[in-house]
UniProtKB/TrEMBL annotation:
Protein's recorded name: Peptidase C1A papain C-terminal domain-containing protein
Keyword Secreted attributed: no
Signal peptide annotation: 1-19
Peptidase C1A papain C-terminal domain mapped to chain residues: 96-297
Keyword Isomerase carried by entry: no
Stated family: Belongs to the peptidase C1 family.
A GO MF term: cysteine-type endopeptidase activity
Swiss-Prot/TrEMBL GO biological process terms: proteolysis
Keywords: Disulfide bond, Glycoprotein, Hydrolase, Protease, Signal, Thiol protease
Matching InterPro entries: Papain-like_cys_pep_sf, Pept_his_AS, Peptidase_C1A, Peptidase_C1A_C, Propeptide_C1A
Length: 299
């Protein structure tokens, strides 16, 4: 197959902070301590207006605060970079459902509900981008493909940031326009193990860009999938919802606090702990809890 083209959307800077009262604490912790802290779990679960339950997260059991911060992977976007990307808005007259899940609307697109593991690398900025891109190829062109986060992490270079040490989601989408991205079969992700054993060090260096398919007889240039354009979506909730409802999942970047690592259930909002950094995920829907709190659905 030759090159594939698809209009894309990018959403950046969605705050994870809540309007409810927040407790300040833990900002001065020793970063060599584990990210999972009993006092954070107790503080959240004893807060009368938290709206969510904190608990022990086994996946993060071996991570220190510093290692957790390294894994987040979204760098602050320079204003000059954002200024070069147009911002899209949607008409306020558009009627949107009160509850929406892209997995249900486009049930034939299995990639929407698929969560990919990024292992030891701070590459969430790349995973969020390729996950949304492959979803939109399915939604708009009925193409079920899995795209390569490794292509972005290894080959985008300084344009996207610092690979495993974090990047700019906006630049990932510009890379789709200028360079395209190959399939995951052509260039699979370099870390297939992840941080699962005691004492592991989640700090892999950025993989080398080889521009060569791992599968015999596949040509790198022929496995590229391109975007026609890239844009960011206005951060107003209506614009975000309209974009997802009409065109499919979007990548979002948000501020992460220490308590986020302890999330178990409910509608998350910041209660306690210091800022850890920026993180990117795929936003696929929204709704309102029984308590009347609006929430986003991401994966």
């Amino acid at each position: 197959m030759g090159r594939s083209l698809l209009p894309l959307a990018l959403l950046v800077v969605l705050s994870a902070t809540a309007a409810a009262p927040q407790l300040v604490g833990a900002a001065g912790r020793d970063h060599s301590l584990g990210i999972i802290q009993k006092d954070i779990i107790q503080t959240v679960n004893n807060h009368p207006n938290a709206g969510w339950t904190a608990g022990y997260n086994p996946y993060l059991a071996n991570y220190t605060i510093e290692q957790f911060k390294h894994m987040l992977g979204v760098k602050p976007t320079p204003p000059s970079l954002r200024a070069r990307v147009r911002t899209k808005t949607h008409s306020r007259s558009e009627q949107l459902p009160k509850v929406f899940d892209a997995r249900s609307k486009w049930s034939g697109c299995s990639t929407i509900g698929k969560i990919l593991g990024k292992g030891h690398c701070g590459s969430c900025w790349a995973f969020g981008a390729v996950e949304c891109l492959q979803d939109r190829f399915c939604i708009h062109h009925n193409m079920n493909i899995t795209l390569s986060a490794n292509d972005l992490v290894a080959c985008c270079g300084f344009m996207c940031g610092d690979g495993c040490d974090g990047g700019y989601p906006i630049s990932a989408w510009q890379y789709f326009v200028q360079n395209g991205v190959v399939t995951d079969e052509c260039d699979p992700y370099f870390d297939q193990v992840g941080c699962k054993h005691p004492g592991c060090e989640p700090a892999y260096p950025t993989p080398v860009c080889e521009k060569k398919c791992k599968v015999q007889n596949q040509v790198w240039e022929e496995k590229k999938h391109f975007s026609i354009n890239a844009y960011q979506v206005n951060s107003d909730p209506h614009d975000i919802m309209a974009e997802v409802y009409k065109n499919g999942p979007v990548e979002v970047a948000f501020t992460v606090y220490e308590d986020f690592a302890h999330y178990k259930s409910g509608v998350y909002k910041h209660i306690t702990g210091g800022v850890m950094g920026g993180h990117a995920v795929k936003l696929i829907g929204w709704g309102t809890s029984d308590a009347g709190e609006d929430y986003w659905v991401s994966c």
